[in-house]
């Protein structure tokens, strides 16, 4: 039960949650950082942006003042494309700074460890019961209240920024494009500066709440902590037994493949490597290999199941040292292995012909 989860999450629990993509993150913090970065970029590039807007407005006004050119489809398209091109060149650097700031803000919250598991489809995400709990849960109420507060704050900020400038804005009706552009940039900066401060406050509150709910979800019961501790503190003998059992199982699987091998290449006593070539793969595969006692077992199994045993010391050493069980032989050993297999097939063919002649 949730009431039993009174302990803070262990590092292992946190790592597991992170791999699943469960991290404390506030999108409002990202928004605040992006807005501040945009204001910083505008403070440096403001004159260039104002100049570009002035040029765009002057060019548009000059074209519109010529009715014959402006009222045609080509004329309107030319005005629109020229305006968009000029604004893109002016605002592009600011947008790039904002994009980089957004990435940095996100990395600052979640770090440099991407989670592929978070992208996998999960049944609980489409579970209607889980969806209903999320809709009517405290998180959704908080998100709804936060959205209302943000809309109200932005509305107040816009009103406070525009109201004192109504007289100045009305005076720009007959102003030059440069004056109009300067007034618009000044108004946008005034609104953005106040919005940035508001976003920082909202983002700090939101991040604190996200951190609180994240920590609450990760809490563990005392029994969970004990179970995790026991699982991490297995006796060395148990771990050794587990490793030994796994090695025995792997060796048994390897030995079971020896009777189906085409040939066993030996050292002759220290190394033994069993090869199989079934034509479905481009090269023979090592199905078993071993040294000393395991090599002896491979040779015995080969003798019991009439698998040819060929002595080739350099080839046996190379195969044992460079090829793992289940892997194909490397290209530099193709010729040597091909000669061994050709000899085996030739001997087998001669034996069949002798049996047939009898």
Automatic annotation (TrEMBL):
Pfam families: Bac_export_2 (PF01312). GO terms for cellular component: plasma membrane. Keywords: Bacterial flagellum biogenesis, Bacterial flagellum protein export, Cell membrane, Cell projection, Cilium, Flagellum, Membrane, Protein transport, Transmembrane, Transmembrane helix, Transport. The chain crosses the membrane at residues 29-50, 87-107, 147-164. GO terms for biological process: bacterial-type flagellum assembly; protein secretion. It comes from the Bacteria. Residues 1-19 have a biased composition (Basic and acidic residues). Residues 1-22 are annotated as: Disordered. The keyword RNA-binding does not apply. It is found in: Cell membrane. Its main location: membrane. It is a multi-pass membrane protein. Belongs to the type III secretion exporter family. Required for formation of the rod structure in the basal body of the flagellar apparatus. Together with FliI and FliH, may constitute the export apparatus of flagellin. This is Flagellar biosynthetic protein FlhB.
């Amino acid at each position: 039960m949730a009431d039993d989860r009174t302990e803070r999450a262990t590092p292992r629990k946190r790592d597991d949650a992170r791999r699943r993509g469960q991290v404390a993150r506030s999108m409002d913090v990202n928004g605040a950082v992006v807005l501040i970065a945009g204001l910083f970029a505008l403070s440096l590039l403001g004159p260039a942006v104002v100049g570009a807007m002035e040029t765009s407005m002057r060019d548009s006004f000059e074209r519109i003042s010529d009715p014959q050119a402006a009222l045609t489809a080509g004329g309107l398209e030319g005005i629109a494309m020229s305006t968009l091109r000029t604004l893109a060149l002016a605002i592009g650097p600011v947008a790039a700074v904002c994009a980089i700031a957004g990435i940095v803000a996100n990395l600052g919250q979640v770090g440099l460890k991407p989670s592929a598991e978070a992208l996998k489809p999960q049944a609980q995400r489409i579970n209607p019961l889980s969806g209903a709990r999320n809709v009517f849960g405290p998180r959704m109420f908080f998100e709804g209240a936060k959205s209302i507060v943000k809309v109200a704050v932005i509305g107040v900020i816009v009103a406070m920024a525009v109201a004192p400038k109504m007289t100045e804005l009305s005076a720009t009706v007959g102003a030059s494009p440069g004056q109009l552009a300067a007034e618009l940039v000044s108004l946008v900066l005034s609104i953005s500066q106040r919005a940035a401060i508001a976003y920082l406050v909202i983002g700090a509150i939101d991040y604190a709440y996200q951190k609180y709910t994240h920590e609450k979800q990760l809490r563990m019961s005392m029994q969970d902590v004990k179970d995790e501790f026991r699982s991490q503190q297995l006796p060395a003998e148990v771990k050794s037994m587990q490793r030994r059992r796994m090695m025995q199982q792997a060796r048994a699987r390897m030995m079971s493949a020896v009777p189906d091998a085409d040939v066993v290449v030996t050292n002759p006593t220290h190394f033994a490597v069993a090869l199989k070539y079934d034509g479905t793969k481009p090269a023979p595969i090592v199905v078993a290999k071993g040294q000393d006692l395991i090599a002896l077992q491979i040779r015995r199994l080969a003798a019991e199941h009439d698998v040819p045993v060929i002595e080739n010391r350099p080839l046996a050493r190379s195969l044992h040292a460079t090829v793992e069980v289940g892997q194909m032989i490397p290209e530099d050993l193709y010729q040597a292995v091909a000669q061994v297999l050709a000899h085996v097939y030739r001997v087998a063919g001669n034996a069949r012909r002798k049996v047939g002649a009898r």
